Fold this sequence. Notes:
The structure holds two protein chains of two kinds.
Chain A: H1 3-11, E1 16-27, E2 30-42, E3 47-52, H2 58-65, E4 73-78, E5 81-82, H3 88-97, E6 99-102, H4 114-125, H5 130-142, H6 158-170, E7 176-180, H7 188-203, E8 208-212, H8 216-219, E9 224-229, E10 232-238, H9 245-256
Parallel strand pairs in A: 3-8, 3-9, 6-7, 7-8
Antiparallel strand pairs in A: 1-2, 1-4, 4-5, 9-10
Helix pairs in contact in A: 4-6, 6-7
Chain B: H1 4-15, H2 18-56, E1 61-65, H3 78-83, E2 88-103, E3 106-115, H4 120-123, E4 127-131, E5 139-143, H5 144-150, E6 157-161, E7 167-177, H6 180-185, E8 189-193, H7 194-201, E9 209-214, H8 220-231, E10 235-239, H9 243-246, H10 248-282, H11 285-293, H12 298-334, H13 346-372, H14 389-409, H15 415-456, H16 472-502, E11 512-515, H17 523-527, H18 529-532, E12 536-551, E13 557-564, H19 566-572, E14 576-578, H20 585-594, E15 597-601, H21 602-608, E16 615-620, E17 623-634, H22 636-645, H23 648-656, E18 658-662, H24 663-670, E19 677-682, H25 688-700, H26 707-715, E20 720-723, H27 724-767, H28 769-777, H29 782-823, H30 833-860, H31 863-869
Parallel strand pairs in B: 3-8, 5-7, 13-18, 15-17
Antiparallel strand pairs in B: 1-9, 1-10, 2-3, 2-6, 2-9, 4-7, 5-8, 6-7, 11-19, 11-20, 12-13, 12-16, 12-19, 14-17, 15-18, 16-17
Helix pairs in contact in B: 1-12, 2-10, 2-12, 2-13, 2-27, 10-13, 10-15, 10-16, 10-27, 12-13, 14-15, 15-16, 15-29, 16-27, 16-29, 16-30, 21-23, 25-26, 27-30, 28-31, 29-30
Amino acid sequence: MTIATEIDTRLTNPTIAIRGITKSYRQGRREIQALRGLDLTVDPGEFVAIMGASGSGKSTLLHLCGGMDAADTGSLVVAGQNLTTMSERSLTTYRRRTVGVIFQQFNLMPSLDVRENILLPAQLAGTCNATVHSRMEELVEVLSLKNRVRHRPDALSGGEQQRVAIARALIMNPPVLLADEPTGNLDSLNAAIFWKLLRRVLETRTMTVLVVTHEPAAAAEAKRVVVLRDGQKTGEFNVEVGDDAGILATRYQALAT
Amino acid sequence: MMPVSWQLAIRHWRHKPLRPTLCSLLVLIGTALVFLAGAGLTSGLASLAHDLQYYQGTADVRVDPRIKAFDSALPPGLLKQIRELPQVAYAGGNAAGIVYVVTHGRVTLVHARGVSLATAWKFHPEKFAAGTPAKFADQVVLDSRLARSFGLKTGAMMVVRTAPGKIVHLRVAGVITPSPIGRFLEPPGMTMSRRELGYLTGTALCWRQIEIHLHHGVPIAGFIKILQQRSGPVVEVHAVQKGPAALSHMQTAFSRAMLFGAGLAALSGAVLIAVMMGVGIQGRVREFGQLRCIGASRNQVLQTVLLESALPGLLGTTAGLVVGWGTSLGLIEHYSRVFTVCKIDWLTVVTAALTGLAATVLGALVPVLLAWRIGPMRAVVIAGQAVSPRRIWAVAGVGIAALALQIALWQIPDPTLRFQAYLLVGVPLIFFGVILLAPMLAVFLEKLLGRMLARLWWIRPELLNGACSRRPWRSGAMVGALLIGIAFFTVMRSRAAGLVASWEFPRGMPDIFVFSPFKPLPAERLRNLDKAVPGVAAASSVTAFWVQGTVGKGAPGTILFVAIEPRSFRSVVRVKLMNNRPVQTTRAFAVLAAGRGVLIAAQALRQFGLAVGRNITLGTLMGPVRFKVAGIAEVPEINMANRFLHAGRLFRKVASIAVVGSRKEARRYFGVTGLNTVMVDVKPGFKSMAVMLAVKKFLSRPRHASLLGSLLALSGAELHGISIGEMKRNLNAMIERVMQALSIAGLGVLIAASIGVSLLLMASVRVRRQELGILRALGAGRWQLCRMILAETSLLIITAWILGTGQGIYLAFMGTRMDQLMVGFNSRLVVAWGAVGVCGALTAGLALLAALWPAGRATGEAARALIASGRE
């Protein structure tokens, strides 16, 4: 089965299904309950923003969805794969093929140039073929990185680094894109450019997107906003066409407090 | 296409080249040093073997007179009979004599070797500096020292004469370069036809020694038996021990020493690489976490780390082999007078390569283990957990257990097994144990000295809080890297000082020995020696000759009777007497003086089961006479020399058939009145060489004056002399030179360790950039932070100095125990505090310099940039 066929198959199922998930961790001698029996469903192709105050568990939720951390209890199914029962090896394959992650701190490899950073997931998966290369060319073109491909991260601006991170997250054409405060380190102008370019990239792809943010302006890009508080979902609302950051902030405040 | 792990490792090297390059350099130095040591040892040993071969000749069998008296010679016609034997390929003879060479009006006494010209050069293939071997009776071959002294070149004529007034003119056919052993053991001499020598010396044409080369495949032992039977008891037929065989024991010891040194080098290199690369991995946890996030498997991360750690090591090993090879060849060529043979064997190459590889692989293990634990979450979460003091104590406990285990290894009853187990396991355990103690000591010293160091570096004491306790493992690792160089240097210098101070061999021996090899010395001269020669404190004599004797009910055999003057002998020679327990020396010597008493050597005790009070029957002029064993002599220094050099076979043989009796008995029972060796102790303040010359002149003064005799007496040239004091000085200088070379190796390790420490400090400061940024943001000044880093480094240096010096002194102490165990030499522990202090200052200086640069760089950046670096 080719990657494309595999992804199409997965897209026919509900993409993210979270049932009663809990997660706790220790901070010194204190035990922190990050998630307390959270339920959430995200449909294929849906763009969902997770909002909440610091310590509400939104980043923990994203890490669990990205297969980076393991839940204590509950069930977490992403693109038909139950992450709570997967082995270390399967989780590695899952991270390679099913999800693309964009971090707040860009997290690019400092020793590799833009091109190599973008191709790295494909190289790690051993699938760095002509298709991947042409996809890379396409992404570089769309994300306006064409004249920066031979530069290393330390020679790029924050906005450019985050664009490289988008390209790296999409190079394997994953069915799910996860973003953790993707514009948290960018000024408003670069943040606007980021969302514009991401929209342009997603136009040609059917992809489920889960974005963690506390910025209403970022949440305005989503179709639905889920609000968390103390590790539990306090509510959600759909983003209508024309809703601006102010409106969303008001609605978010109503659910968050 | 290159695997992604390779790409990442190579890209990282290109991106941050300093650390891997210095790791390569470290491995290069270690590998090259081991190669150099191996090549030096094997070439030195091969040169020694070659020189021995050269000195001993190529003969398979030798024939000597049974009784080695002044004029003893082999029966006439024996050489002809031997040559006719079917087993013999060729045979030749040697004779020796003293002739006088007259050059430029100067008369010089010269040792001459008379040989069969047809075979001599086959048995002794000398190295010719000029000319060719002598082929005709009117030709002579000179030692290069003589040729230089006489100003003679090949083709020149020289006048040789003897006391009766015989004169011959000889042409110099060739000049030989003596081997280093020959240079050490033999006086300068000349080689000529035996016929000419016989004419000059007026002696009968008989050989003092015959050398035999057998046809290939002839069993040597069988031939010796046949020839001994044919030749009768007047001669002694024996096999010639060839150089390499004689040195096999030494070769094994050297190989072990080299392997041990290589093991230590590998271990030290591994610690340094492990710490360096380990700190590097700690600084790149987020990077590896990112890799895991985007789909890198644990194995891919491990491969990347392994390659990053191993690639520098592999390149360093390869380069180290090349550099080691080249340097060895260059140095051996440069010191070609010492290294007559250049030999680089496979063991050297393999050991050096394994040293580099072992350091690489062991060093890579720590970063690989660190990387193994990195999960994808480390891309987003910085895990910083305080280390529990219990864990620090637990690690220290393991260290103490390791140290206790090495002490337990020393209790193994079998000495050889104990030695090997201690070298292979015990010494690494010491390193391991001490390094594990480092975190605990660093934390303890932080509490003890933190306030004082803060005052010294002029910073707030609070800034030093947690300098080590917050990062105990990293602090311990840095101390571990620092202490290796200090420990090596301390042990090398302390061993050198201890060996020089303990070398007591000449202390129990006379200051001067004077031999008369060709004619007996007048006994009455000895009595007046202390009055006649200024500087003589005490003098005694020894005369040895062969007699027939029987021990118990055994068959009669030849026994060496060593005649001494019991009263004076003890004043110049220290003899320990034993009979399973110490016996009173005075009582034993009283028995000797009373008559019909002898001392025997410990070797005789072992061979014949002789004990104090038992009898030995000697054939005397009055028929068989029973002598009572008064004591068993043990000379520890000689035993040590025998064991260490493994040259004791001949000594044991002689000692087991020797008895020590009084000179009075020698005169009474055997009619021997002359002396052949005089031993002298020199008064303090007199130069032993000057006293030796005066003694030689006094002893060789002729009874009846003649012109030539007076000339000879003026030089005392007929006598051989050895100044033990001079010998001790030479030996001390030699030991000091060897130890200096070892100290240079120690210094090499220190420098290599300093490179590692510099890297570590750089990495450590880099890892802490965010912390420094926060401190800057909170108002700490740039120089204040620099001083803080230097104060922390001082704390590490003090910890490393305490542990390194302690470890070095302990290793030096165990070295003295090993000397006693394996060589029988009671060396003393002398700590070279001066060198240890210099080493400490050097390490401190290097480490502080190494810390200053990254500290200056890091604190020079803007606080915002430093804080942001924590999120990279």
